[in-house]
Amino acid sequence: MTRFLLLLALLALPGLAAAQTGGLALRIGTTGIGGDAILGVGDRFQVRASGTFLPYSTTYLQEDDRVDVSYEADAQLFTVAGLVDFYPFKNTLRLSTGLVYNASTVSALGTPAESYTTGGRTFSPEQLGTVQADLSHSAQIQPYLGLGFGNPLAGGRFGVMLDMGVFYTGSPTVTMEATEMLAPTAENAPAIQEALSPVTIYPAVSLAFSVRFGD
Amino acid sequence: MSPLRFSLKTTFVCALALLVAACDLAGIQSDLEDATTVRLNVPAAPAEFAVTVIDATTQRPVSGEVSLTIAGDDAALIVDPLFYDPIEEVTTGSGTVALALPDGTEVSPDAPVRFDVIVRADGYITTGRSIAIRSTGVDVFEVRMLPLSGDAPEGVSVAAETEAGSTTNQGRLRETITITTPADAQTQARATVTIPADVTITDARGRVLRGALSATVAYYSPQSSEAMALFPGGFDDLAVTRADGSTARGGALQTVGFVSIDLFDEAGRRAEQFSAPLDVTMDVPAGLINPETGAPVAAGDRIPVWTYDEITGRWTEEGSFTAPGGSFVFGESTQAGLIPLGFSVDHLSNKAGGWYDTNAAACTEGAELVLTNRNHLPVRAVITAPGYSFNRTVHMLDDTLRLDGFPSNIPSANVAFFFEDGSLGSITVDNPCGARVEAALTNVPTDRVTAEFISNVVCTSRNVTTLPSILIQANRAGVTQPSYLRVENGALTVSGLMMGAEYEVAVDYKTLDDTFQRYEHRFIAEGEVDQDGKVRIVQDFVDIQEVCARL
């Protein structure tokens, strides 16, 4: 993280002397809601610090002809990004790159909602137990590459920014714990992790409303 | 828009699209569905047990259709272990049925679950066994049947006559039939059955037997372990009906020998009832102890005679008969020391002489025999009492063998151990009602390995993989004696595995028509043996359709 901030500082140094304008933005998108602080560095570059979060919980009842299962999913999305925006044509189109500190976690708890009958035997939800699954990424510093439209430091004081990009998250790590009769279901974790291994990017699409300060 | 600007935009958009497309979302979803199968441990029933019916001549499970009827005090508790269907009468083609006590059933040595099994099979003498489930866990109970033809085991003398006599058109026996068994090789004892002329013989349904009659009479020596293994009811938890109509259970019938009598007509009707009594004489071997006197059986002793009730699975006391004096001349053979026991009966079944001793039930919690080097071997233990009529076979599924229910008046027990068809030695337990005894097996094979199986029962029609806890039969191909093992939550450890040999694993399950079917799986024991002498093998029992459809 320290290296990342130092890199950002070095990138920004040549332009700091010429810095004329800055801005702030409110952002909403696939990584949650948050805000940006933007600093212009010359005609074609801007540096941007961005932070988003999204605490999201939901419950879901999976209905089955044998046993209904209630899931409680809890996603805690939290990212802090240091980005450099490059405007190749000095208009609204920009290329963005940088590093993202991604501390997001996703977990789910499955609980049978009713008794389960197999053969002539009926097992209560307590006898069946629960399944807990957690998803995280081993590398929390992740590169970002994206394309954007809208220049917050050009044109009017208020502007709109659209960003489309991806984090390279690497393959996720899946851990599972299960209890009682469901205990062996936890052994699925390696298979689930393998199934998710192609998912190495996270799409970051967001819309921001900006305000410019200075000239 | 300049060509350059358009080109750059297009490039970036396409690059992003390619990144997302590279994820192959459909493929990931499919892999995830496969990976998220629910894996479910299914706990075993509180008590699970197999009843296996063994041909006393071949020593193998009876391969024809065998019918088992459950009777007795706690018969209503007995279910099959997979579907919990109540079991009253079932058939099996493998010689084995799997039974269980349902969830919530409590058992203990002081409050066992008790029932009787009556076993019938064409070509065999009907028999049965009284069973007491004294603890949770798994157990195996053997019932041995004597075929009506073929070589009899040691201690059993059989006289089989295909043309023993005939009846008139009215069903009256034309002439007296007398059938005498050969003398027992060890004791010279024998049995004779005399059916007087002019009697009318009917079967269990009241139909008169007509035409030529075939008869089989078998005498079972009380001094033969092999013969006593055939004693109907067994020596575990015998149930009887006394002469006064009262019932008793938990004692032991110390027999002076027994006789089985089967009579059929040309149409295959089996004799059950006679219009006049028939006479049975059975020699009592010398030296047998009369528990009422504490001395060898002597002339003038009162010996109760019992009939095995093939409906209830209980021995019923017919009355007492007195042994006449001293040495006895029987037919053409003379054998000093034999005491003849004669009685009359009006219906056919197994007949036994002996004393039912409820005091024998005092040994409720017998000695605990612990094998120190069993090492997971599926060991079969045969318990006998030299000098007494006792025989019990136990399949050891753990290191401990309890002598629960052993007659308390018998001073010592001999326990012989077997693995596959070989002996692992024997020991004598001097106080069968005593405390813990440790013993070591001998002749344990040294060229075997231990295999750790991961066994799944996979029903592909459902997204559930079941990891059962069930009793299975597992044998090296060609081995006569069946061995039983327990799968615990899908995991099974088998010791004594011969690498490169073929093995048979079988699960007996009940179908909807009260028939037990067998699922068999053969495999070659192969794999990489680790430094601990273990090999890991994964076996999937996939899609036993009749099972999956009902789970």
Q: What is the molecular shape of chain A?
A: elongated
Tell me the number of helical segments of chain A per DSSP (H or I, 4 or more residues long). Answer: 3
Total beta strands of chain A = 13
**Major sheet of chain A, described briefly?**
8 strands, antiparallel, barrel
**Category by helix and strand content of chain A:** mainly beta
- Identify the overall geometry of chain B: globular
On the 0-100 scale, what is the average pLDDT of chain A? 87
Strand content range of chain A: over 45%
Oligomer: heterodimer
Number of strands of chain B: 39
Beta-strand share of residues of chain B = over 45%
- Structural class estimated from helices and strands of chain B: mainly beta
- Main sheet: strands, sense, barrel of chain B: 8 strands, mixed
Describe this structure in words.
The complex is a heterodimer of chains A (215) and B (551). Chain A contains 3 helices and 13 strands; from the N terminus they run αββββββββαββββαβ. By secondary structure, chain A is mainly β. In chain A, the strands form 2 sheets. An 8-stranded antiparallel barrel of chain A has the order 1-2-3-4-5-10-11-13. In chain A, strands 7-8 form a two-stranded antiparallel ribbon. The longest helix of chain A has 15 residues, at 2-16. Chain A is elongated, with a radius of gyration of 23 Å. The model of chain A is unreliable at 1-19 (pLDDT under 50). With 551 residues, chain B is mainly β. Helices cover 7% and strands 48% of the residues of chain B. Chain B has 4 helices and 39 strands. In chain B, the strands form 9 sheets. An 8-stranded mixed beta sheet of chain B has the order 7-6-3-4-38-37-34-35, with no helix packed on it. In chain B, a hairpin with a 7-residue loop joins β34 and β35. Chain B is globular and about 90 Å long. Chain B starts with a helix and ends with a helix. At the A-B interface, β11 and α3 of A face α1, α2, β1 and β33 of B.
